[in-house]
Specification:
Elements: H1 17-20, H2 36-50, E1 60-61, E2 64-71, E3 74-80, E4 83-88, E5 103-114, E6 117-129, E7 137-144, E8 151-155, H3 170-175, E9 178-181, E10 186-190, H4 191-198, E11 209-214, E12 219-224, E13 229-234, E14 237-243, E15 255-260, E16 266-270, E17 280-285, E18 292-298, E19 301-306, E20 312-316, E21 329-333, E22 339-342, E23 353-355, E24 361-365, E25 385-390
Length: about 400
């Protein structure tokens, strides 16, 4: 259920995180029942009122190691051939309105971490944020093609092409809602244009491409979180793979992540903050068949990955959608269904997740903060964008 009321999301940087969670966008999105923007804004107000005991980390602490630090709103992760790739949503740019925003620029980037060295390998990507750089959205995921090795990135949407606010830089317009490839940032496919033309879930046009999995240089799968759709891209042509059904209470499931499982099927994690704690699912999708729930009872899932033993790992942005705590979690679901929570007391407002061949888990921490952190008392003074490794 969605309303047509547009939210001036840039008035509250943390509320802007509704965009990164794929719930709305300033040109096409509205609020739904128990909307993401109200969810994040309410949590921000509660955090501000209650304070927080959370702290950032550096170095190695009890099985938790910082492997990448001072990142700008770190989101999706990928691991290939021993290197870690991080999508940084950036810090926005010049504000169209100096007091209210939005602040739009080309500060999003891709960082590669290899042999302990951290460097940005792609720069100049779309980013929009609050005036202080928090709660940015931009290039929110990265995937290295399993066949062919191409680097693919998914860029957020500021709206359908004919609804974009005036004054945007031409390069921002070019990248808007697109699947991009490589350092040249070549447009592979226009994901938002597909939503604007087709509205697959028939709930009104609303787009925020948020996750990508590159099976090969010619075949990728993308989730449009605001559009509730999972899309296939073959040789640049976009088609519908599945629409994720709503929650039992009628709110959107909000597909935030996609990966391929050991069985070759597609698996999609959902935010489903409108369904409350335990309302998020991981769906299994086989082309030509309706989506089926694979794992239920999760909370606010923003990314998923499989480990070498077939265990599913889910990154939960928060563990309690109604509380004033920024505590997130990584939940491991073994093939036999047994669940374990990892990184307790270390993971806060996490984003992307990846698992290496040894079963070590990497997770983006403080995923809505820039490298410099935030002066807002909502956040601990030393909190900033990082990637943690759990398990040694």
């Amino acid at each position: 259920m969605r309303s047509t009321t547009l939210r001036r999301w840039w008035l509250a940087p943390v509320a802007a995180t509704a965009l990164l969670l794929g719930l709305t966008n300033p040109a096409t999105g509205g609020s739904g029942q128990a909307t993401g923007s109200s969810f994040i804004a309410t949590k921000a107000r509660a955090l501000q009122a209650a304070g927080s005991a959370a702290t950032s980390r550096s170095g190695h602490h009890g099985g938790v190691t910082v492997v990448a630090d001072r990142l700008n709103n770190p989101r999706g992760l990928d691991l290939r051939h021993g290197s870690l790739y991080v999508a940084e949503a950036g810090t926005g740019g010049p504000c169209l309105d100096p007091e209210e925003g939005p602040c739009v620029g080309l500060t999003s980037s891709i960082t590669k971490v290899s042999h302990g060295r951290q460097r940005r390998i792609v720069r100049g990507l779309l980013s929009t944020a609050g005036p202080d750089g928090t709660g940015a959205v931009g290039v929110d995921d990265v995937s290295i093609a399993r066949r062919g090795g191409g680097l693919f990135m998914i860029a957020t949407a500021l709206g359908c092409q004919d609804q974009l606010p005036p004054g945007l830089p031409p390069e921002v317009v070019r990248q808007n809602g697109k699947l991009l490839r490589g350092q040249a940032k070549r447009v592979v496919a226009d994901i938002t244009a597909f939503e604007c033309a087709n509205d697959p879930d028939r709930q009104g046009v609303e787009s925020n491409p948020y996750s990508v999995y590159a099976a090969s240089n010619r075949h990728q799968v993308v989730t449009d979180a605001a559009g509730d759709s999972v899309l296939r891209v073959r040789d640049g042509r976009v088609s519908l793979l599945a629409v994720i059904p709503p929650s039992e209470n009628g709110t959107d499931q909000v597909p935030t992540s996609v990966t391929r499982g050991p069985d070759g099927a597609w698996y999609v994690g959902t935010l489903a903050e409108g369904a409350g704690n335990g309302g998020a699912n991981v769906w299994r999708i086989v082309p030509g068949h309706a989506p089926e729930v694979y794992v239920e009872g999760l909370t606010a899932v923003v990314d998923i990955a499989f480990g070498p033993d077939g265990s599913l790992y889910a990154s939960e942005f928060v563990t309690d959608v109604a509380s004033a705590e920024p505590t997130g979690a990584v939940v491991r679901v073994r093939p036999n269904g047994r669940r374990t929570v990892l990184g307790e007391g270390s993971v806060f407002l996490p984003g992307g997740i990846a698992v290496d061949r040894h079963g070590r888990v990497y997770v983006a921490n403080w995923s809505i903060l820039p490298a410099t952190g935030s002066a807002d008392p909502v956040f601990p003074a030393d909190a900033r964008g990082q990637v943690l490794r759990l398990g040694g």
